[in-house]
Design a protein that fits this description.
heterodimer; A: alpha+beta; four-stranded antiparallel sheet; 7 helices; 39% helix; B: mainly alpha
């Protein structure tokens, strides 16, 4: 053991373990490296832009990266940042026959409980277990890579390489999730749907009484890019226009009626 | 710096004669990290971390076949693709090494998780603490590396605290190790026991001071400051944290919600105020937690924010562990006095 335990304060009766000075210097170096590793990962995360990342952040991170990764220090600490975003769910449908992907008009008329849901408040208890599946649904959604790359972007070899890797990971994810659910339901065919639940604004929740659990806030995210409807603008007083929130009377909503600006 | 029963005088950390001026910064730095300190503050942190590790492994056991094994939602083939890189594409692998990526045997994985529970409980109790805390940290780290996609802030905090507790002698007080050493001095003197517990036989009413406790506490404090600082910077980038609506959008997120907080939307001024307080508190935490006169405010706000997260946003475990991590800023002296007051309440003096 590195410590040399000595009594330093006999009047108080306590004994104290102090460390010899050469060891202090050695340890100080190790502490410095460790703390740089703790700092370097979020620093690098923040220093990124669409064009480049900070050269100093790159340098720090490259030096400490293997250590930080093994010690599980490689985090950006983006808790509810930059903004609280929509929630994501996974719904896996299984059947005895191959399943078609939903038609565009079906994407906004979703019953999440039609298939197996991740996370499922009723099935996944205790709360920590539910949260693990919630994180998985978010992870799954974050790894989405479209089936085709824009021809213009494909001309850039770096982008194409990155997309190829991302797409391979995403298809592996879909396969693993499908196999898991097929095994559990004993059905030969499965389809994985990425669901997104928009966070409603105050008006629709408090004045129009649309509950935040209402399935009308949910849409199935497309697997291929689709033309996005024009996002509604906030009113002059800063509040959202009522047209952006679902009506309490209609259950047959059009996509643009459900789009709420984030 | 003050001297108390719980921290050694600064000079004790460095027994060398007074250094010339040019070395004073270095001396202060050494004293900052290596000042012998008692374990009183680390005791609740150790108990909470140990039991939380046990609970985390219990929950992994509940969903074991979805998390690990041949039928996992992230199976080993996918895990290797995520972490092993791709030589054809020239993408390097990472250093998230875990032996759980080598096996799909549910029985072996179950044994691993059960060991995690056992060592977590032992660490929480403070029994064979030096071994049990190290084992609990390592077993959790191995699972965490294999559990890509299922992780969140709780895992970061638990790994952080358990690693720093491996350095500490948190079993000096309030542990089964200490109880055994006091009751059975011969056992305590044995080499094996000393190796497993890190304790020596001697004890008295005075707190035992050790540099390991000081260092462990400092690392927790600095790490926590870095977490909050970057957490705050991330929020500064979002317009919702500036326009005062972020708290509403966090409270109205159904996937996170555990208790309904949407009634707060009726009071937009309060929502905006709480959003801004959270933003400024988080960014300023590293600055306001060190001075003695602002520390109570920084820690109290941390407790309030994390209590809110625990009660309303479904992250009871994460909120609880963040509150526990903030205890590292409570002085050992105050913790010891609290214990003594608690003991007097239970057992009043005759």
């Amino acid at each position: 053991m590195m410590s040399s335990e000595k009594t330093i304060d006999p009047e108080e009766g306590g004994s104290s373990g102090t460390l010899a000075r050469p060891w202090q210097f050695l340890l100080l170096g190790l502490i410095g490296f460790h703390l740089i590793a703790v700092f370097a990962e979020p620093f690098h995360f923040f220093s990124r832009s669409p064009v480049q990342s900070g050269a100093d952040a790159d340098l720090l991170r490259n030096v400490t990266r293997p250590y930080a990764q093994f010690m599980f220090l490689d985090h950006g600490y983006f808790f509810f940042a930059p903004n609280p975003g929509p929630g994501h769910l996974l719904r896996v449908m299984t059947d005895d026959a191959p399943l078609q992907f939903p038609l565009p008009q079906e994407r906004f008329n979703v019953n999440p409980y039609d298939g197996m849901l991740f996370p499922d408040r009723n099935r996944h208890k205790p709360r920590l277990l539910y949260h693990r599946y919630l994180m998985f649904a978010e992870f799954f959604n974050s790894r989405f890579a479209p089936p085709d790359l824009d021809p213009e972007l494909a001309k850039d070899s770096l982008i194409k390489k990155s997309w190829t890797n991302d797409r391979a990971i995403y298809t592996s994810l879909v396969r693993a999730v499908s196999e898991n659910v097929k095994q559990e339901t004993k059905k030969p065919f499965a389809r994985v749907d990425r669901l997104e639940r928009e966070i409603p604004d105050r008006i629709s929740t408090l004045q129009q009484k649309v509950r935040i659990s209402d399935p009308r806030w949910i849409q199935i995210l497309p697997e291929a890019p689709v033309p996005t409807p024009e996002a509604p603008m906030p009113a002059a007083d800063g509040n959202l226009t009522p047209a952006t929130t679902p009506s309490t009377e209609s259950s047959d909503l059009k996509p643009e009626e459900l789009v709420v600006p984030k | 710096m003050t001297t108390s029963k719980d921290t050694a005088p600064v000079s004790a950390a460095n027994k060398a004669t007074r250094s010339p001026l040019r070395f004073s910064v270095l001396d202060n730095l050494l004293a900052f990290f290596f000042r012998p300190t008692s374990a009183h503050t680390l005791v609740p942190i150790r108990i909470a971390t140990g039991f939380m590790i046990a609970y985390v492994h219990c929950v992994w056991l509940l969903g074991l076949e979805d998390f690990l094994g041949p039928n996992a939602l992230v199976d080993t083939e996918l895990w290797l693709r995520l972490h092993g890189g791709d030589s054809e594409l020239g993408i390097p692998g990472d250093s998230k090494w875990t032996y759980l990526a080598w096996t799909d045997s549910i029985s072996l994985i179950r044994v691993h998780e059960m060991l995690g529970i056992v060592f977590g409980l032992l660490a929480g109790l403070g029994l064979l603490t030096r071994l049990s805390m190290l084992a609990a940290w390592f077993l959790t780290l191995m699972t965490v590396h294999r559990m890509t996609g299922f992780l969140f802030g709780l895992d970061q905090i638990v790994i952080m605290l358990s690693f720093y507790l491996c350095i500490a002698k948190s079993n000096e007080v309030g542990s089964v190790d200490r109880l055994l050493c006091d009751r059975f001095p011969r056992l305590a003197r044995s080499r094996g026991m000393r190796l497993l517990t890190g304790l020596r036989e001697s004890t008295n009413e005075r707190p035992q001071l050790s540099w390991q406790n000081g260092l462990s506490t400092r690392l927790m404090q600095i790490h926590l400051c870095i977490i909050y600082f970057f957490g705050g910077l991330g929020k500064l980038r979002g317009e919702m944290w500036w326009d005062g609506s972020a708290l509403w959008f966090a409270a109205a997120s159904y996937e996170y919600q555990s208790n309904d907080l949407t009634w707060m939307g009726r009071y937009p001024v309060i929502v905006a105020m709480l959003t801004h307080i959270t933003l400024f508190w988080e960014v300023l935490y590293p600055a306001i937690v060190w001075p003695r006169w602002t520390r109570p405010a920084a820690v109290s706000l941390a407790i309030a924010v994390h209590l809110g997260i625990a009660m309303f946003m479904g992250m009871i475990t994460f909120g609880f562990m963040m509150i526990i991590a903030n205890l590292s800023f409570v002085s050992p002296e105050l913790t010891r006095r609290t214990y003594q007051a608690g003991r007097r309440l239970i057992k009043p003096r005759p």
